[in-house]
Amino acid sequence: MKACVLGAGSWGTALANVLATNGHDVVIWGRDEAVVNAINKDHLNPRYLPGGALSPLLHATTDFAGAIRDAELVLFSVPSQALPVLVSDASALISQTAVIVHAVKGFTRPNNVRISEHINLVMPNVEKRLAVLSGPSHAEEVVRGMPTTVVIASASQSTAETVQDAFMNAQFRVYTQADVVGVELGGTLKNIIALGVGLTDGLGLGDNTKAALMTRGLAEITRLGVSLGASPLTFSGLAGIGDLIVTCTSNHSRNFRTGRLLATGLALNEALEQIGMAVEGVSTTFAAAELAQTHQVDMPITTALKCVLKGDVTPGAAVRELMQRERSHEMEDVGQRPLTHHWRFS
Ligand SMILES: NC(=O)c1ccc[n+]([C@@H]2O[C@H](COP(=O)([O-])OP(=O)(O)OC[C@H]3O[C@@H](n4cnc5c(N)ncnc54)[C@H](O)[C@@H]3O)[C@@H](O)[C@H]2O)c1
Ligand SMILES: O=P(O)(O)OC[C@H](O)CO
């Protein structure tokens, strides 16, 4: 299969490498000439994946149109903020029969639209050729061939299976799913919770706190997901709890590490500069807080984190506020729960 990967950062490089290892004819497009040259000459991407040896069959280019031309599979793998321009630029170049995949974990801003929703708006009639790749998968481990499982969701079973076949190998196991909304939202919303868990780690709080945030975080992202049309079951799968675990417990996670840096007193822009890569959880926190308001979904952790990111409250005060809300029944909020808590600082 002739495949084109748009985005030569950590995830685009790791996924392109999986396709190249599987024997596909892969070209990866990047805007940074130094990264492109390193992939072609040294079979490395030291800027984004230090030490990860790449397949010598993987070819990189800065020629956007040339990369897309004749591709049977086009994969978008850039941060969500870069996605809309890229989709607009690529839409007229992508073949009418190509399968389109995206691996982006975020919303478009400021309208808070899911990425596949955005692609469907810009490229009408692609829904049956469009798939989402998500799940617990740090690029650093994928490029080293560590056993990894992901999920491909599409409105078309045949498209999902085509993409499954393209990526699947002995180290990279791919499941299919029909719940596009749930798979997209699971991978996107877990980043909020990873930021929060990183904050508590940075504050020196314990494992009880992390487990509480992960569990109650899953409850609230599921509530929002269900109100946006996702199946609650998807949140107990790879794109839900699977990705939540890997992001909240790993030093590879840029979201987790950003939270930890914020707890040391760094300003948000300083923390993001230090990470130097996509930290989707920041814009996702604001997007989710707005969606929660619109859909009247109770998301106390997201609301507290939004206030911390805005600098309206310290991380310690946010934890205290979360712990001292009015008493509640754990399973009362499996479905949608109306907003009840009035935030002092929201
Ligand atoms: N890194 C991972 O392990 C991982 C795993 C799963 C999903 N994701 C998701 O994949 C998406 C991409 O993240 P990443 O980890 O590759 O980020 P990254 O920071 O490692 O790389 C981003 C890449 O996008 C490029 N880019 C940024 N702005 C651009 C623009 N305006 N136009 C063109 N290219 C631009 C950068 O040059 C870089 O090559 C994110 O939504 C992320 O959540 C990442
Ligand atoms: O490094 P993060 O926090 O963007 O997480 C990467 C992946 O989404 C983990 O599945």
Automatic annotation (TrEMBL):
The protein's name: Glycerol-3-phosphate dehydrogenase [NAD(P)+]
Domain Glycerol-3-phosphate dehydrogenase NAD-dependent N-terminal: 3-159
GO molecular function: glycerol-3-phosphate dehydrogenase [NAD(P)+] activity
Catalytic activity entry: sn-glycerol 3-phosphate + NAD(+) = dihydroxyacetone phosphate + NADH + H(+); sn-glycerol 3-phosphate + NADP(+) = dihydroxyacetone phosphate + NADPH + H(+)
Recorded superkingdom: Bacteria
Residues engaged in binding NADPH: S10, W11, R31, Y48, K105, A139, R254, E280
Organism from which the protein derives: Alicyclobacillus fodiniaquatilis
Pathway terms, separated by semicolons: Membrane lipid metabolism; glycerophospholipid metabolism
